[in-house]
């Protein structure tokens, strides 16, 4: 089966190396800041990228420690299983460099907010990876992860933006959380059998009929955010980007029967890069 191949296709390497989510976060952070008329400093973009990378790598290391090598597994989990020691060393070096950059270049208020998100992420890892706590996370894993990720993206633009536009920006932030949640739900649906084989928790395992509701969720999200965009033209581009990504994810779900799981996973990341179509306009 494709997820058992020892030679990974080239297009999977961003996901395998955990560069996909940080790239998406960085693109959206810059895009949201531009829409809000905010100029970010380089360190704010770098710290977000590195922080998301550290979180995703840690999560996958936790998965790899309990991985059954004789059962089907996603390529990213197999990679971390095979290279645990090297990745742990790299993770520690990057964590130290990130902490130093944050202390030297990030203003105290933003640093405090990002530290709070880090504490939230630690709590997430605890309930997802500690066996007797996992029942707590069964219904909320994807929602918690999407919320922490999205807050990391929107924090710097929000803090630097004018007071009168923060309310509108927060509304679009809520829709962005929904988009990230949709992305994670879809990956859970597509990888349900892998999660079952490795005893990973996901909403798709708990609710087998979730796959049939994805269309409605994606269309409702796209329609709602377009309506909001018409009422708040200042951030219309953010709404359009969210709608494009939501509809792209729905389209991928519609053709899932003719694509391999690995290809779907890679294209799901690409679908979240919709700001690249609008950021330079």
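Sequence proposed for the structure above (281 residues):
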């Amino acid at each position: 089966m494709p997820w058992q191949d020892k030679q990974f296709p080239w297009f999977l390497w961003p996901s395998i190396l955990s560069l996909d989510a940080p790239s998406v976060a960085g693109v959206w952070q810059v895009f949201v800041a531009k829409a809000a008329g905010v100029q970010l400093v380089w360190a704010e973009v770098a710290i977000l990228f590195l922080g998301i990378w550290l979180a995703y790598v840690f999560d996958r290391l936790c998965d790899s420690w309990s991985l059954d090598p004789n059962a089907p597994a996603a390529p990213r989990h197999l990679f971390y299983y095979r290279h645990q020691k090297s990745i742990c060393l790299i993770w520690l070096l990057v964590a130290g460099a990130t902490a130093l950059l944050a202390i030297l270049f990030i203003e105290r208020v933003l640093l405090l907010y990002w530290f709070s998100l880090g504490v939230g992420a630690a709590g997430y890892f605890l309930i997802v990876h500690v066996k007797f706590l996992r029942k707590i996370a069964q219904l909320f894993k994807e929602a918690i992860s999407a919320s922490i990720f999205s807050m990391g993206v929107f924090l710097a633009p929000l803090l630097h933006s004018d007071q009168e536009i923060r309310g509108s920006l927060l509304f679009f932030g809520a829709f962005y959380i929904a988009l990230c949640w949709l992305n994670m739900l879809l990956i859970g649906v597509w990888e349900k059998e892998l999660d079952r084989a490795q005893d990973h928790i996901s909403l798709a395992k708990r609710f087998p009929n979730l796959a049939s509701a994805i269309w409605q969720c994606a269309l409702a999200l796209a329609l709602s955010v377009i309506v909001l965009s018409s009422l708040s033209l200042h951030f219309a581009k953010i709404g359009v980007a969210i709608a494009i990504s939501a509809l792209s994810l729905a389209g991928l779900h519609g053709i899932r029967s003719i694509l391999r799981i690995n290809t779907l996973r890679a294209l799901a990341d690409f679908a979240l890069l919709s700001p690249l179509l609008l950021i330079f306009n």
